[in-house]
Each structure stands twice: as C-alpha cells, then as structure tokens.
Amino acid sequence: MNPILGIALVIGVFSFLITTFRDIGITMLFNPDALFVVVGGTTIALFVSFPFPRIRNTVLDVIETFKDHGDRATLTQDILQIARAYRRADIRGLESRIKGMRAPLLRLGTNLLISHYTSEDMKNIMKREVALRMVNYNFSQNMLKTIARLTPSFGLAGTVISLIRMFKHLQSVDAIAPLMAVALMSTFYGVILSNLIMLPLAAKLKDKAIVSEALMHITIEGMVAINNMDNPLRIEEMITGYQEQSDTGLSGRVPVSMSSSASGV
C-alpha cells in the first residue's frame, strides 16, 4: 500500500472513531444481539445467493487487493529478462525462472513460449485467460455490492424485530431500554458495514481489476513480441513508449486504448 494512502487511512479511521465514540464510550456501541441479527442474516442470505467456491474466491480477491504484486516497471523488467533468455535459447533458465514469477499470466506466457506455441495461439490463449480473470473480478465486485445491499436491510429487520418485542414490555422502562438499544444499533451496524466496509472494498477491487487488465495486456504484447524474436530494445520501447497516465495507479505508462477499455470493467 502507498505510504501516503496508509497515513490518510489511519487519520480517517482515527477521526471517525473519535467522532463516533465521543461522550458515549465504545462499550455503548457494542450490542451482540444487534450484531448477530445483521451479520447472521447477511451470512445466511449470502450462502443462499452464491456457491461456496465463489464466496471463497471473493475473499481471496479482496485479500489480493491489499498485496503488492508489482507495477509496470517491475513487469517490464521481467519481460525483458525473458526476452534476453529466449534469444539466447536458454530454455533451462526460463524454466527455472517460472517458479519465481508472481504474475500468473506471465508464467502462462512463458510456458507457452517454451512449448513453442505460435504467436496467434499464444495471444488467443492469454486473452482468454484475461477475460476469465476479469469475469472473476466482476463476480467478486457483484458479491461485495450484494452484501452492501443486504446489511442495511437486515439492520432494518433487526430494528423492526426489536420494536415488536418492545410492545410486550411497554409497562417496564427497564425492559424497553435494552430492546431500544438493539433496534437502534441494528440499523447502525447495517449502515456502517455497508458504507464503511463493503462499498469501499468493492471500489478497491474495481480499481485492482482496471490496473490488472492494463498490466495483463502489456504482458500479452510483450510475450508475443518475444515469440516473434523481436529485439529486447524494441520490446522495451514498445512497452514503455506509451502516453503518461498518472491516474491509473500503474506507476508508469499504459496505452490510451488499454486505459479506456479497462475503465468499463
């Protein structure tokens, strides 16, 4: 994670906690009954809506967004190293290098290179892999947005349930107070989980998908050029000779066509 973003996140969380817990204390905002209604109901609805493998893959995708898998500069160096080794016909060197590659598409492209696939077949196979990865990212974003819609609904359900229970204890103020706490905190938990956690995670995953798609297209272009026995200097010029796009998060340059097509993810 970018250090500046990390500092901004810490400041934001700290400010939110101070504003929320001021004058009431943190114990006042923790209500197990309300939390169980929101989290339990959302979990049940989630398992009804999605198969377990999809839920697991979404969790893995979310975890992946917080990991540093390199940028365009790192990818460029990896591609150039592969190009030099391939021109030297150093197949053993390429095979030993595959295990250390962090980018799955780069590993796939290197395997196809070693197996002597044609450039057209290599491009088609790698493009199918990119399409599949983008579909998985979209599935994960859809699940996070679904959770963001479910949590406020179950928060409202918890509020209604608590209000109904209150009608049985109108004669006792001591009995009404805990039920009122559950009613209010259910709505609070639903809104917080939706807007402070799930929707930001969905946005972060979408940003990850845009950046990943651009990097994967660069990988395809580089691997096809290597298979065509292009000179490494020419490959480097092809990869780095793109218009500067400071808002892509790639720490470098990407083609205009790539960034525009990826924005539709």
Describe this structure in words.
The chain has 265 residues and is mainly alpha-helical. The chain folds into two domains: 1-27, no CATH class; 31-262, no CATH class. It is 77% helix and 0% strand. It is built from ten helices and no strands. The chain has helices at 3-21, 32-49, 52-65, 72-87, 91-98, 104-114, 119-166, 173-227, 232-240, 256-262. The two termini are 22 Å apart.
How would you summarize what this structure contains?
The protein has 265 residues and is an all-alpha fold. Helix content is 77%, strand content 0%.
Number of helices: 10
Radius of gyration, rounded? 25 Å
The low-pLDDT segments are 243-249, 251-265
Largest sheet: none
Mean pLDDT over the residues:
82
Distance between the termini: 22 Å
The total beta strand count reads 0
- Domain count: 2
Helicity range of the residues? Answer: over 70%
Q: Could you state the order of secondary-structure elements as H and E?
A: HHHHHHHHHH
Using the alpha-carbon principal axes, give the shape.
elongated
Q: What structural class do you assign from the helix and strand content? A: mainly alpha
- The percentage of residues in β strands lies in under 5%
